[in-house]
Amino acid sequence: MIGIATVEAINKLIGQKDGFLTILKENIETVISETDNNIVSEIDKKLEELQKDLLRLANSKEDYNDIADEIYRLREERHKALAEEAGKKGSKQRLEEMEKFLNEQSTLLEKYDEQLVRRLIEKVTIFDEKLTIEFKSGVEVDV
Amino acid sequence: MGDVNELLEQAIKETENLNEGEVFLVKDLFKGYVWNRIPRKDRLLLGTLFLNYVNKMEGNIKAIEKTSSNQQRYQKV
């Protein structure tokens, strides 16, 4: 039952492939534009400067508490920025995977394909009246 | 700064006990409870001083890539 539903959902996407590919491309572009690789290198530059300040203050026996707090805060920020970047890379990869599949698939599926389902589908939610198939690219199809 | 300089000397001395090829963080050069007693801001300063020392001396300790949590790693060569 679920197997048939997944085939139906994938075929729905293949059937509307042209419109869907346009949306996918837009989504990929959005992810790319939101990925700012400069954040981490900007933080690294700031950290380098702050470490120099830290040394200068310590050498002149001045209090360096605030600088130390700022360094720890920036390290935390760097960690978050890296995690966010990794998340965006993952999203882009999933969208590209779907794009690749749709570009390569010229005919509708005739039978359940376990490997393909694992590659494309994130989860299936069963409701009383329908099944919702959520693809890894984020698209949801009701069957 | 005085205390931190002492800690720096201890750290440098401790590197003598490392074997060639061993990779370490500055905190590995201290007993856990000693490291935990060092105030956070002084750990930071100690790390910066140790890196400066390593870069300046160009001896048998090399700074290598940082850990994912941005801690500087070193290797005895």
UniProtKB/TrEMBL annotation, chain B:
It holds the Pfam family DUF1413. InterPro entries: DUF1413. It comes from the Bacteria. This is Single-stranded DNA-binding protein.
